[in-house]
Structures are given as C-alpha cells and as structure tokens.
Amino acid sequence: MQPPRSTPSSSYPSSERSLQPNPPHPLHHLPGSHPHPLHHPPHHVPPHARRRPTLRSQIARWLGRNWARLSYAYQVEPLWLEINHHDIVIADLPPAFDGYRIAHLSDLHVGRQLPQRYLEEAIEATLALAPDLIALTGDFIHKGYRHVAQAAQAVGRLRAPDGLFAVLGNHDFSVRNALGYRRYAGLHLAVAEALSHQGVVVLRNRTHWLQRGDARLPLCGLDDLWSRECDPVRTFAGVPAEHPRIVLAHNPQTIHLLQDHRWDLLLSGHTHGGQIDWPGLGRITLGKKARQLAAGLYSHQGAWVYVNKGVGFGFRFRFGVRPEIALLTLRRTARPSATPATPPGEPAT
After folding, report:
1. Please, how many CA atoms are within 13 Å of residue 45, restricted to the half-sphere of its CB?
2. In what side-by-side order are the strands of the sheet with 246-248?
C-alpha cells in the first residue's frame, strides 16, 4: 500500500502554498505524448562555450557605471553632510576639562555655488550637538567681498556656552597658493570684522584662555600658513609649557612650523579631503605632501591633528569624501570608544 501523498499544510501562507509543485497533468504521460516544455531539464552550457562580453558591451557598462558615479558626485554627495565623533586623549588635561566637547567646522566657502538652504542645515546640525565650544578653521567665503556678510550672518547663528572661535583661511586672505599673492589686499580684514560683529572671536596669532573653575586651558589661533602672517612665537608667548594647548590653524601643514613648541591638538581644514577619492585612483586632486594629511584624525610626534573635510566646496563635486561636522571630546585617559594612536603621518581609525 502506497503511503498517502503529502500535501502542503493549511498553516502555510497562500504565498508559500503557491510555491509548492503541482502534480503533472495526466496528458503529459500518455503514450506518444511529449512532456510539457517547462518540464524539460535545463540545458547546461559549459563555461568555455558561453558568449563573452563584446568590447561594445564592456564600454557601455563602463560608461554607465561612471556616469552614475558622476551624477552622484554632483547631485548627492556635496550636500550629504555627516557628523563624525572622536574622543581624543590629551596629556595633562585638567580634570575640569575631561569630557569637554568641541564642534569643529571648516571651509564653508560661502558663495553662489553653495545653496543657502544647505548652509542653514549645517548650522542647525551644529546647534543640535550642543557643544561646549565651536571652532571654525577658516575659508568662510569662496572669493571676493560679495558674500562676506552672508557668511558672517550664517555663522552668527551658532551658539555655545564657551563661545565661537575662528581663524582665517587662505580664501579669506584671498591667497590661492603657497606663493602668497593676494588678489584683494584687505579681504581678510573685512572677513574678520564681519565675524567679530556677529560675536565670533577671531584669533589672529593669539591665545584665549578657557576657564572652568580654577582650571585653565589655552586655545591658540594661528593665521593661515599661505598668508605669510602665521606667527607661532607670538601666539604661544606667555603660555607655560606645562599647559596642554589646543591650536586652530587652517592649513594642517602648519605643524611643520610648530616643531619648537608644545601643542597637543591642532584643528585644521583646507584640503576638503581632496573632495574626490576615486576608486583605483585615490585623492587625485591632492599632491603627495597634502595626501599625508588629507582628512580625519592623525597622530604626529605625540600630538593629534584633525583635518576637517569641510562643510562647503570650491567646485560642486565630491566622491567618497562627504562634507562634515566633527564633534571632538577631550579626555584625560583612554576610553573604549577613544581613537587609538597611529604611526606618525597615518590616519587614525
């Protein structure tokens, strides 16, 4: 006696019951009849007999893939802001500053290429972090005087208990390369004055002391490296060597002027991370030296360098290098979430 044929349980959903194989139609098994075409066994094609993609199809695939990348890099990523959190251990940090939170923005590049709505969203995102202090490391405008007031008014909406502090970048000085030539000789003065009117403390080769109870922490600001006005000696004058120093400087290469001085954390921008990190090619817009301090957190001779990728852009194109706001938390000792140390010149993970 044949066992009864099993049938799908009524507890299966209808979608599952529909996937159960149906019994073959009786006509499929009559003498001389042919099986239904759907019941033919699949025809196996050996790998060597399969048709290889033609050159035309390969080119079409390559064009399609890279056209999608180009569209994304123009339409999406330049306005896709990310917030990066880092715990940073500072030697000799006063206990009162353990857990101190700094929101770091850089390279707004306010101009006709930057949507006003996006700029406002970046300001709102910074306010939502509720930091103790906001640090701004230059390039507030892209070029010329036209957008100085707009940039200052946007920044003026920021608020933090210990204030807003800024240094100027090479675009604020109207300097486009290391040669130091300025197209607008007084542009940096106009930017600094507009920021000051909005309550931003502009640190031009000087130090501001942060205070928490009896504890003090120096916040040091340097003029831009390419401006030829960067003066570490003047900036650090009167700051005892036993005090850890938080430094603001637009260009991360400024560290090479600080070899004779103590500094513990330098916040910078300038590079935009290259704006492009193309698959197989890397950061094609940055030179060899700039790639050594391209974006993110680096350790250097016992100190830390943070290179912000910037909020804005010089040209509207980013790929693999999203714009950012960084939230840096100062720590006395390492914690499980703290960023580990890395060899000098290597990005921290």
Report:
1. 6
2. 206-212, 215-221, 246-248, 265-268, 303-307, 296-300
Please indicate, yes or no, if residue 47 is contained in any of the structural domains: no
Host domain of residue 192: 65-331
pLDDT tens track for 252-262: 999 999 999 99
Task: Give Cβ neighbours of residue 43 (< 8 Å, ≥ 6 apart).
Answer: none
> Can you say whether the dihedral through the CA atoms of 133, 137, 138, 140 is positive or negative?
negative
Rounded to whole angstroms, the Cα distance separating 167 from 200 reads 10
Does a structural domain hold residue 279? yes
CA 244-249-252 angle, to 5 degrees, is 100
pLDDT single digits (tens) 9-22: 443 344 443 344 44
Total tally of structural domains belonging to the chain: 1
Tell me, yes or no, whether 347 lies in a domain: no
Residue 307: CATH number of its domain = 3.60.21.10
Those residues whose C-beta lies under 8 Å from the C-beta of residue 198, and which sit 6 or more positions away, are 152, 153, 155, 156
63: left (phi over 0), alpha (psi -120 to 50) or beta: alpha
Q: Could you give the CA distance from residue 294 to residue 306 in angstroms, rounded to a whole number?
A: 10
The kind and range of the H/E element at 120 are: helix 116-129
- CA distances to 39, 94, 130, 296, 349 from 42, rounded to whole Å, are 9, 74, 63, 54, 50
Sequence-ordered list of residues with C-beta below 8 angstroms from that of 272, at least 6 positions apart, any chain: 107, 309, 310, 313, 314, 321
Question: Residue by residue, what is the 3-state secondary structure of 46-103?
Answer: CHHHCCCCCHHHHHHHHHHHHHHHHHHHHHCHHHCCEEEEEEEECCCCCHHHCCCEEE
Residue 347 pairs with which residues in a beta bridge? 298
Regions of the chain with pLDDT less than 70: 1-51, 57-58, 60-67, 334-349
Q: How many residues are given for the chain?
A: 349
DSSP class of 39: G
By CB atoms closer than 10 A (0-12, 13-18, 19+), residue 41 is exposed
- The answer to whether position 306 is within a domain reads yes
